[in-house]
Amino acid sequence: MKKIITLLLLIAICISYSSCESALEESPKSRLVKENFYKNGADALSALTSVYGIFSREGEFPTIFFMSLLENRSDYSDGRGSQAGFSTYDSPMDNTSQSRAFAAYNDLYQGINRANAVIDNVAGIENMNAELRDQYIAEARFLRAFFYMNLVKYWGGVPLRLEEFTSLDQIPAPRASVSEVWDLIINDLNEAIPNLADTFPESDAGRVTSWAAKAALADAYLNTEDWINARDVAEDIILNGPFSLVEVQVADDFLQIYGPESITHSGEIFSAHQSETNGNGIATHIHRPNTGFSVGGYYAWLPVEGSLVWDWDTSDLRQQFSIYTEYIDKNGEVQQLPESTPKLFNKYRDAGTTGSFNGRNNVPFYRFAEMFLIYAEASNEIDGPTALATERLNIVRRRGYGYPLNSPSIEDYPQGMSASEFKDAVLEERVYELNLEMKRWNDLLRTGRAQQAIEATGKTWSDVSLLLPLPIDEINNNPALGPEDQNPGY
After folding, report:
1. Taking Cα atoms as reference points, which of 246, 135, 237 lies closest to residue 192?
2. Which 8-state DSSP code applies to residue 277?
3. 3-state helix, strand, coil in the chain (%, to 5)
């Protein structure tokens, strides 16, 4: 296992094309290791596990700085300290912010290369169960699609690398168009679904299921404005998936979803699973020290005054769970947050972990609640706010307020809204339901509302903020790219 991870890391490092020639001087030895590796099901599982390893603490994706970038790019959160550059919109990001974006980009391609290694090599293993072999390849195909989704959403068109990187001859790769990247993603997901497992036992929670692939497919269709397919796939998950919304009566019932002790829950579709030995630093980054919610605290993500999360109805249990203004100190006394930071995020909390970067909170990518919101948004684009679309939106809202899911409540959105009003309501509800889940910035970009939302917070906008910069090494060392391929403003 150690040998194969070393090989995969070497190949992934070469994606950035720096010092690749010297790194590959030992390539005959690396090929020998590869030839000796893909022999049986255990080898296949080890290779697949290395793809999932991208979600661990080894880099920038998905936490902490990729997540910080997306959250502090959104209109409801400002980065503080070294993360302030993520919240500047009238000029290119500063060098520190760019370097973190480059690191996330490289992490994503490292994941793609590991997935390609599984796809290319596991198919040739004869000494294993054929159904399991197809499943492993399907999981890798989903993960490749998922990594490309995170690239195309924020960098636009990127080079498509569809084979394991084993030679310098593979370095040249032209920049694909946005539509070509989305076509690959949708094709990968559709190919993966038939061979994926429908469920896993709790001991394997976090692995890709057919339902995770369908959720990603609904997301892909939403981003490409294929409203009919987005609606229909979300409908399939709602009606036929093995999921249910976690019902809540008090705010801390949401700990069943986000708490450090939660292994999985009935509404989880796909998440990065975390533990003390494979954790994250989210709680440390959002809290002040000594509040009882984290080990240490940088309070580097600050709610924006006047935004949806600042003026959020305090009767909403999601607000009570996600935002705090006071805490209990070590003497058991209630303390108000200081005037400089009167409100902070509280969705992720883990004071019982072993260290600042060992947070055990899982990082959700797709939850059942989002499928109701995707259905509502897509259905509205097709037929306007139908009764079913409005009911699906209200089910999510009722859960947020602690009401029975299937009975009308005083907090319901009314029937008879215009299509424009309904879309506004869906996008607002996505903030209340999905804040700090790496959704809002994509929502603003895909709906063309980024400038409007950012300027509403009093900041100055420039279109340079629409896309992240391609890494300098990608431009300089990929012979198929030139300076003209860089995103505007960089």
Report:
1. 135
2. T
3. 55, 5, 40
Q: What number of residues does the chain have?
A: 490
Using one digit for the tens of pLDDT, what is the confidence trace for 43-59?
999 999 999 999 986 56
Taking CA atoms, 24 is separated from 14, 30, 172, 253, 407, in Å, by 9, 8, 16, 52, 64
Terminal CA-to-CA distance of the chain, rounded, Å?
40
Indicate the residue type of 134: D
How far apart are alpha carbons 337 and 351 in whole angstroms?
A: 18
- The token pair at 400 is 């947020």
Taking the C-alpha atoms of residue 60 and residue 69, their distance in angstroms, rounded to an integer, is 10
Note whether 15 and 106 are within 8 A (CB): yes
Centre a 10 Å sphere on the Cβ of residue 6 and count the other Cβ atoms it contains.
12
Task: Supply 68's token pair.
Answer: 């910080």
**What is the full DSSP assignment across 227-248?**
HHHHHHHHHHHHHHSS------
CA–CA gap between residue 318 and residue 320 (Å, rounded): 5
Cα four-point dihedral sign 229, 318, 212, 266: negative
Cis peptide before 13, with omega less than 30 degrees from 0?
no
Q: Distance of alpha carbon 411 from its chain centroid, rounded? A: 29
pLDDT (tens digit, 9 = 90+) per residue, 239-295?
A: 999 999 999 999 999 999 999 999 999 999 999 999 988 899 999 999 999 999 999
How do residues 140-164 score in pLDDT, each as one tens digit?
999 999 999 999 999 999 999 999 9
Tokens coding 75? 């209109």
Of 322, 313, 381, 378, nearest in space to 348 by CA? 322
Sign of CA dihedral 248, 251, 253, 257: positive
Cα(273)–Cα(253) distance, integer angstroms: 19
User: If you ran DSSP here, which 8-state letter would residue 84 be given?
Assistant: G
Distances (CA, A) of 231 to 36, 59, 418: 46, 35, 19
Q: Beta strand pairing status for 344-345 and 323-324?
A: antiparallel
Distance (Å, rounded) from C-alpha 190 to C-alpha 168? Answer: 31
Q: Look at residue 335 and give its three-state secondary structure.
A: strand
Sign of the alpha-carbon dihedral angle for 254, 259, 262, 265? positive
Q: Assess contact for 454 and 440: CB atoms under 8 A.
A: no
